[in-house]
From TrEMBL:
Keyword field contains Signal: yes
All residue ranges annotated as the SRCR domain in the record: 45-156, 161-260
Protein name, UniProt field: CD6 molecule
S-S bonds: 230-240
PROSITE patterns, A to Z: SRCR_1 (PS00420), SRCR_2 (PS50287)
Length: 278
């Protein structure tokens, strides 16, 4: 009778499409294809602690938590696949991030002869790719020794933001790094919502002023954006709608911002001139 119920249960699981659990001694893998990822859906990989969403430490999602990917098994194919999947172009540099201090192995338990074997599966997940496309990648749990080395990548489309010539990091001309070049932003339609995104992204509080051109020294090089139209809720300035600025603006129209964490003096010229001490 018990044999009958056991066979019935296995047949039901097979017909329902739910796989039977893997043996306890087998590595648990999560294929990127199994999530049926489409553009716009949440990827099980992200980059953190970098200058933008296109650089930093590689983290993979395991169920409800994010964990840093093992650096020992990180390679150029995985770096290329991650950058492409995140919409950041190809990989510019893949590296391992060493831990600040060495990790000491746990002391052996008395009478436990399997500690040495288990040490190689200390819990660090890895992203393994057989090619430079995301569909050829899989997340493997407990893939390598947890020695503290973490996978890190800088993508070709890496972007960064800064405020310059304003007397501090939280005030000045707005500049973006795109395609390896620092460039400015045109002041057409530039307002406080746009400046709010800049200040928040830089960790400078909120925007006190959104300034038009010539309040700070004009920049050089490309003008990356024109007619920026942020809602104010975007995480990065490049997430805001806008137009390419190189053919529409000159550097006399470089946009500027002053954030709440700044302590500069800015001269405002409206109907009457005055100085605002922040």
């Amino acid at each position: 009778m018990w044999l009958f119920f056991g066979i019935t249960g296995l047949l039901t699981a097979a017909l329902s499409g739910h796989p039977s659990p893997a043996p306890p001694d087998q590595l648990n893998t999560s294929s990127a294809e199994s999530e049926l990822w489409e553009p716009g859906e949440r990827l099980p990989v992200r980059l953190t602690n970098g200058s933008s969403s296109c650089s930093g430490t590689v983290e993979v999602r395991l169920e409800a938590s994010w964990e840093p990917a093992c650096g020992a098994l990180w390679d150029s194919r995985a770096a290329e696949a991650v950058c492409r999947a995140l919409g950041c172009g190809g990989a510019e540099a893949a590296s391992q991030l060493a831990p600040p201090t060495p990790e000491l192995p746990p002391p052996p338990a008395a009478g436990n002869t399997s500690v040495a074997a288990n040490a190689t599966l200390a819990g660090a997940p890895a992203l393994l790719c057989s090619g430079a496309e995301w569909r050829l990648c899989e997340v493997v749990e407990h893939a390598c020794r947890s020695d503290g080395r973490r996978a890190r990548v800088t993508c070709a489309e890496n972007r960064a933001l800064r405020l310059v010539d304003g007397g501090g990091a939280c005030a000045g001309r707005v500049e973006m790094l795109e395609h390896g070049e620092w460039g400015s932003v045109c002041d057409d339609t530039w307002d406080l919502e746009d400046a709010h995104v800049v200040c928040r992204q830089l960790g400078c509080g909120w925007a006190v002023q959104a300034l038009p051109g010539l309040h700070f020294t004009p920049g050089r090089g490309p003008i990356h954006r024109d007619q920026v139209n942020c809602s104010g809720a975007e995480a990065y300035l490049w997430d805001c709608p806008g137009l390419p600025g190189q053919h529409y603006c000159g550097h006399k129209e470089d946009a500027g911002a002053v954030c709440s964490e700044s302590s500069v003096t800015v001269k405002i010229e409206n109907k009457e001139s005055r100085e605002l001490m922040l």
